[in-house]
Amino acid sequence: MKVGKRGAKGATGGRSTLRRWDLQAAVQGITGTVTYNAPLDAYTSFKIGGPADVLVEPADVDDVRRLLTNVRGKRIPIFVVGGTNLLIRDGGIRGIVVSLAKLRAIKEEPGQVLYAEGGVGMPTLISYAIRRSLAGLEWAAGIPGTVGGCLVMNAGTRLGEMKDSVKAVRLVDTKGELLDLPAAAIPFSYRRARLPKGIVVGVWLQLRQGAKAEIERIVKDYLHYRRDTQPLTMPSAGCVFKNPPNDSAGRVIEAAGLKGRRVGDAEVSTKHGNFIVNRGRAKAADVIALIGAVRRAVKRRTGVKLDLELKIVGDVSRHG
Ligand code: EPU
After folding, report:
1. Ligand 1 centroid from CA 255, angstroms
2. Beta-carbon neighbour count of residue 268 at 10 Å?
3. What is the DSSP letter of 120?
4. Of 130, 169, 164, the residue nearest 148 (C-alpha)
5. Looking at residue 9, what is its pLDDT?
6. Which residues of 242-254 are buried (b: 16+ CB within 10 A; e: fewer)?
7. Whose CA is nearest to atom 10 of ligand 1?
8. What pTM, to 2 d.p., does this model score?
9. Which residues on neighbouring strands pair with residue 283, listed in sequence order?
10. For the chain, which ranges sit under pLDDT 70?
11. What ligand 1 atom has the least distance to the C-alpha of 156?
12. Reduced to 3 states, what is the DSSP secondary structure of residue 55?
């Protein structure tokens, strides 16, 4: 079994090895939602992506444990959607895709600690913290992903990153057991948290008592800045490339004259060069072709080699 937010890789063409009855056995007893051949476009901020063999939306943590227990020792890939820096190829994802959308409880605990289930959206969590005058999550203003997704990729902005706020993490491991890990036991690096294999079902965040108006002001200012400089009203996957050392990928792409460049309905945003927006019916193949064109043009015109921040997963479409 392969479990992880980024578990599904490349064009593996593994459909033939995954028999329907294996998948049916894997989802046995699940009380949440199980959908076969489920389109995934609605589950990504890009609004792009082929189907999952099976999409599971666990009703609760017990459901997650059941799923991982069922697939224990089997060669069934599991991929968790929830991050937003994600592009799912047009052929979709083989095996099981998990959405934690139903795991969205938030609890306040003593000592300015919030416990958020993995499917809680970051914007929801920030609003909850503001209502309780809890400071410390302002850095995450404008990040649209889930808490679990942000944890796994150590999401961050120029104001801070996930590792600054995490107290502990609860995951269901590959045996289907609950494992609580203190933050100190998790090696975090740039856009990455090294975790044992499993599914993150909750995160404890260590916040601090603050002044409500002040927290709200910082969050609003930052949201305004992002709204002014980024195409937040169009489907996208956030920044496509990592920033090159001491520079901004968006600035370099603009300098290379690439804003507005299109392949099909995929377009280099005219607002921020490091965003590719979906103008309607973009395919993953269009986005990938555009990424290649941008990379080549930037290298040729400025000498800068851009590395992807976006994660690309799933199979290429058999229909081209
Ligand atoms: N710039 C341009 N043209 C552009 C875009 C930017 O000239 O098309 C210039 C801006 O004028 C500014 C500089 O580049 O002088 C930096 O731009 P910005 O403040 O937008 O920051 P960034 O480095 O481009 C980073 C993160 C964003 C995050 C913003 C704001 C990365 C790769 N990018 O962008 O993160 O929202 O700061 O905090 O880390 C993401 O991770 O998905 C993402 C969008």
Report:
1. 14
2. 26
3. -
4. 169
5. 37
6. ebbeeeebbebbb
7. 251
8. 0.91
9. none
10. 1-17, 318-320
11. 41
12. strand
Q: Provide the pairing of β-strand 77-81 with 93-99.
A: parallel
The pLDDT assigned to 319 comes to 63
Q: Which residues contact 183 (CB under 8 A, 6 or more apart)?
A: 163, 166, 167, 168, 169
Ligand 1 centroid from CA 195, angstroms = 28
Question: Closest Cα partner for 254 from 222, 296, 302?
Answer: 302
Ligand 1 centroid–CA 250 distance in Å is 6
- Return the residue whose CA atom lies nearest to atom 7 of ligand 1: 251
Ligand 1 centroid to 248 CA: how many Å?
A: 6
CB within 8 A of 36, min separation 6: which ones?
A: 23, 53, 54
List Cβ neighbours of 101 (8 Å cut-off, separation of 6 or more): 57, 119
| CA-closest residue to ligand 1 atom 15 | 251
Of the candidates 314, 230, 316, the one whose C-alpha atom is nearest the C-alpha of residue 277 is: 230
pLDDT on residue 82: 84
pLDDT in tens, 146-192: 999 999 999 988 889 999 999 999 999 999 999 999 999 999 998 88
Nearest CA to ligand 1 atom 22: 248
Ligand 1: which residues within 6 Å by Cβ? 85, 157-158, 226, 229, 238-239, 242-243, 248-251, 254, 272-274, 309
Instruction: Give distance in angstroms: CA of 272 to centre of ligand 1.
Output: 7
Q: Give the DSSP H/E element, type plus range, for residue 4.
A: strand 2-4
Ligand 1 atom 34, closest CA: 248
